Amino acid sequence: MTDTKVVLVTGASRGIGRAAAIACARAGMQVVATGRAQKALEDLDDEIRKAGGLPATIVPMDLTDFDAIDRLGGALFQRYGRLDGMIHAAAHLGELTPVAHATPRMGEQMIATNLTASWRLIRSMEPLLIQSPAARVIFFTSGVAHHPRAHWGLYAATKAGVEAMAKCWADEIEFKKVVVTVLNPGGVATKMRKNAFPGEDQSTLPQPEHLSSMILELMRESHTQTGTTVHFRETEHFKAWQAAHQPNS
């Protein structure tokens, strides 16, 4: 068993998940990175090594393969005996369409990826997380979970579901010293955001790596408030980004 903090990052092949994996590795953590694209995970590992971080454990997988999630939990137990953190950044936007127009296949895919996979991760990783003296877990939500609007119904519903489930779970395991946070990043320059808002100028948005200091703060042992939703744009981290990148705003 290693003394180095072991952190699982889903959706690590791109976007916020990738930035979170790099930030954790640079902070000296052992990163277990999952994603569907093996080449992207290999590139992530190369970047982590160049930055002086520990080589990542890369796990190409689709989170809708729920048996694979269980196998991952078993493999992590065999290798590390515990899990000190989980950053669940993987998500599926689907098509922005009226609820009644969504096909069953698309709806089932969104629910499986965004909601069911979150539950299966909790189910498989809880036994590992409670073995840590101070595990920290981050789920991601969206503004549409709180302010629903047309064409976002399925995505909003799955994100609201994840947020509710994460907070219920936080209440269940608080006595185990597992701190659970739901993070709303707001608009960030990711591929998913571009798909949702193709006409938006992404140069006006924070890049995924600009969330790194916020994510590392939430992963520290000094962060002890569990079951809360943190809005990145209401934090000092976002104000610092604004001051550096939008000095006239």
Can you lay out the helices and strands and say which pair or pack?
Elements: E1 6-10, H1 15-26, E2 30-35, H2 38-50, E3 57-60, H3 66-79, E4 85-88, H4 104-129, E5 136-140, H5 153-173, E6 179-184, H6 191-196, H7 212-219, E7 228-231, H8 236-245
Parallel strand pairs: 1-2, 1-4, 2-3, 4-5, 5-6, 6-7
Helix pairs in contact: 1-7, 3-4, 4-5
Explain what the structure shows.
The chain is 44% helix and 14% strand. The chain is α/β, with parallel strands linked by helices and 249 residues long. It has a single domain (6-245), classed as Rossmann fold, CATH 3.40.50. A 7-stranded parallel sheet has the order 3-2-1-4-5-6-7, with helices on both faces. Helix 1 (15-26) packs across helix 7 (212-219), helix 3 (66-79) packs parallel to helix 4 and helix 4 (104-129) packs parallel to helix 5. The radius of gyration is 17 Å and the shape is globular. The longest helix is centred in the middle third of the chain and has 26 residues, at 104-129. It is built from 8 helices and 7 strands. The protein has helices spanning 15-26, 38-50, 66-79, 104-129, 153-173, 191-196, 212-219, 236-245, and strands spanning 6-10, 30-35, 57-60, 85-88, 136-140, 179-184, 228-231. Strand 4 (85-88), helix 4 and strand 5 form a beta-alpha-beta unit. The termini are far apart.
Tell me about the largest β-sheet.
7 strands, parallel
Low-confidence stretches: none
The number of helical runs is: 8
Q: From the 3D coordinates, which CATH architecture would you assign? A: 3-Layer(aba) Sandwich
Q: By CATH's scheme, which homologous superfamily applies?
A: NAD(P)-binding Rossmann-like Domain
CATH topology: Rossmann fold
Mean pLDDT: 93
Strand coverage percent: 5-15%
Morphology: globular
What radius of gyration results from the CA coordinates?
Answer: 17 Å
